[in-house]
Design goal:
Helices cover 0% and strands 54% of the residues. By secondary structure, the chain is mainly β.
Length: 147
Amino acid sequence: MQNLSLIAEYTHTNPLVYKHFIPTESYQSDGYSMGSYLGDNAEEYYFALHYKLIRGLKLSLSYSFSQKGPNYPYTGVGNSMLGLPFINTVVWYNKSVSLALLYEVFNDISIFAGYSKSLIKDQLQIYEPNYFLGNTNTINVGMNWGF
C-alpha cells in the first residue's frame, strides 16, 4: 500500500554482554551504556505503522513490549559469565501503545502531538520515576526545529 510503512524490531541482550571487570573495556562512556538503552539481560519487541496522509502529515501507531532481568555481577574470574539464565525473573517491564501525529510545516520545522497508554512495573524502583509506574496515560505536544 502506498504511503504506508510497517516497522518490526527485536532486541535481545544476554546477561553481562556489556560488562567487563576492567572499566576501560566495558561498553560505557561516562557511565552511560553505548549499547541498548535497556542494558544487558533484556529484550524488547517494537512494532509500528506509519501512514503519510498528505505531504508533510504523518500518522503513527506503535506498540512496544520491553522487559529486563536482574543485573548479574561480573568478576572476571573463570567462566562467571557463562550459563547465566536469560531473564529468569523480570525486575522491570513496559508495555506501551502510542498514537502520534506529526506535521512538517516548513523544511526542518514540524509540530507534533501524541498519546501513549503504558503499563510499567519496576520492582527495584531505579529505572523509572514513580509517576510513570503502573497504568499511565501520557499526552505530548511540541515542535521540532532543525532536525
